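Z., the sequence and structure:
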Amino acid sequence: MKRGVVISLHFGYWVLYFLLLSLILVCLQLGSPIKGQPFFYQWRFHVFFSTFAILPALLGFYSFYFLLFDLFLMRRKIVLLFVVGLLTATGCGLISEVVMSVMYTFKVGPGVFHEGARTTLALLLVITIIAVLNGAVALIMRGFMRWYAEIKLKEELMQKNFEMELALVKSQISPHFLFNTLNNIDVLIVKNASQASAYLNQLSDIMRFMLYETKSEEIQLSRELSYLEKYIALQKIRTSNPDFARFRVDGAVGEATIAPMVLIPFVENAFKHADARKQGNVIDVSVEVSPEAIVFECVNKRRLQPSTTEYGGLGNELIKRRLSLLYPNRHQLDIVSSEEDYRVRLRISRHEA
């Protein structure tokens, strides 16, 4: 939620609270012994009453808002929230009573600790209730703002996923890639018809994956890896060197899931900038799967000649933004660029933080 909206909510709440206090104060003055008393006496009563009603409200509201919400409610520790909340409200009451006793030295209001134990405890109870009520309002307000922020985040995620899907369809499986692949398959038909047919089936699988399976929020990791394997195989048609690009998977994939098209932008970027097709391991792609995380690494050797295109494929900022939306606090992306190679390492935790 925007900072201006948050400030407006706080301001609006305190305006309503002060209006309520003003109404109560007017009613008390009309029916109390201070009516008809000198102005100075009335003024001292107003200051005392305002301190009595406002100070514990402020202390209770913002201690619950900034501390107890994050420490207990967000972690669903309801019993601790109840206990610590009462202790916090009582502490707010004690602080307020001390302040009012100090005010008594300036002849403002009664001396709280000079009125007897029963009066002091009764006053403490009332002040504590004021702190608790305002603290409860603070929890409700903070919870509402968090709920609203989560809704906006989900809407943004859906929109970003839609934009990313369109961008990937246009960029990853670009007309240039399709043209080169179909041209290479056409040449291969004369030499090895069965091999050309196999590549054509792989291209068909890639198109089917792009058009249908990317609509889900998550897919089986095995499907994503199968897509990567076929994409790399089709890219390798352009070279007679079987060791030009290497792809390997370590660990048990099992039922692991991942958001579609998370890994392909880095692989597409590697092929776009790779050169020296007669060398081995120009592109090295690996995926390690463990019960804790999925670790993806992609390394490609840089071209010897300066490239006219910029590293980044779809754009690292767009990719980072998508990862932040899909896996908040669950991923770590490291990109290291040197004169020799370009390295990408992405770690995605399989469990919520």
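Residues 236 and 242 are 7 Å apart (CA to CA). The beta strands are 219-220, 245-250, 257-258, 283-289, 293-301, 331-337, 341-349.

Let me know what you think.
H.
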